[in-house]
Amino acid sequence: RSRQCLCRRRLTHIPLRDGSPSVTQSTSLQRAAKGSVLNVAGAGVTAVANFLLALVMARLAPDDDAGLFFSAMSLFLVAVSVCQLGTNTGLVYFISGARSRGQGGSAGSYMRVAAVPVLAVSVVLAAVLFAFANPIADVLSPDREEQFAAFVRMAALFVPFASEWRPVAVGLGV
Environment class of residue 143 by beta-carbon count within 10 Å: exposed (0-12), middle (13-18) or buried (19+)? Predict the structure, then answer.
């Protein structure tokens, strides 16, 4: 009643056109569903955390301080995006290709190769942000230069960590 096909090197039954159910379930489909649920949960936690941070900053900090903080965080997010060099997309492409060829064990080497340039660029950019925080603050917030520079320096310390996290998480399927 059902046809068989070779899918990802596993024998899987595909339902017939009449809608009869498949005999076996694909473990890769279960992994994809689990990964999707984790991604949705992570996005939900991130959205709630961002909302709570905005709420706390808006309620507890003066308007000027909250504006400076969010401006510095925007600069931080741009720096992190630049430092990732598109490795999250590259990792998805190369790791999924390796898995389809039956070379799933090479995912770790892909992640290590991708981490080196990201780490190098993120450390350099963090050092530049830290060293040039005052000139950056002079351009972006001339009225409150010292306070904005302090926020930029604080954010610069975390650029390498945030830049490395996303490509590694993508490579691990998180």
Answer: exposed
